[in-house]
């Protein structure tokens, strides 16, 4: 999926840093895609996942210690041409596009912040590392991305690696922000767990919201320039997004890391489910069709 070169990238909600230290305390909900790999490996080895993932405590507290190292220079990101050539700019520009779509679909939509980081970062949900993958923290309403994850998505998870595969990940995390604004994100930690649990339903809804964005991405115009953010999607673009969705399915990751599949430990949904719900959002463009919490059959 290619950005129109004339679109202007807005970096006003984006910050960047290198490796950080210290950390805040909070409740991390709607966690990232990559963190699942750590959980699966920990469970397979008989290790408590809590010992290898960031510590989480009471909400509302934020006590950052230490100073982040210099990060990516966001001033490099000016136009759609930069988004097509520089992966960090693509993340920011995708966020701009997702914001524009949801501003039309959701009354009172407020933009999340975006934080680009390398290796580690401090958040209102606690410290996190690259191993957790992209994630959204409701405590500071920020989507966090270490772009090295996109290489992992291709080399280790088997995604095709096209631009829309990367943009799908961004739109998914922004989907968690939409859930936060709607007041449903907290349901991820309530009720049953496993393949039919609210954690999986929360992640599949974010996949569906990513599909809703894709439905409108090429026809939503940037207010400042009057031109669409992105060029029309091709069949290959959609194949790239579906490839990314499949590559981070719980069953695919479990099979590739442990050789066995355990639906009771699922947190994000199977490859088939993730593809299904992205497709529902993409084909309908209707957020109301994304109510996974009421779905009798997740796929």
UniProtKB/TrEMBL annotation:
The keyword Ribosomal protein does not apply. Residues 1-22, 249-273 are annotated as: Disordered. It is found in: Membrane. It holds the Pfam family Zn_peptidase. Residues 1-16, 255-272 have a biased composition (Polar residues). It comes from the Bacteria. The keyword Iron does not apply. The chain crosses the membrane at residues 27-47. It is a single-pass membrane protein. PANTHER family: INNER MEMBRANE PROTEIN, PUTATIVE MEMBRANE PROTEIN YPFJ. This is Zinc metallopeptidase.
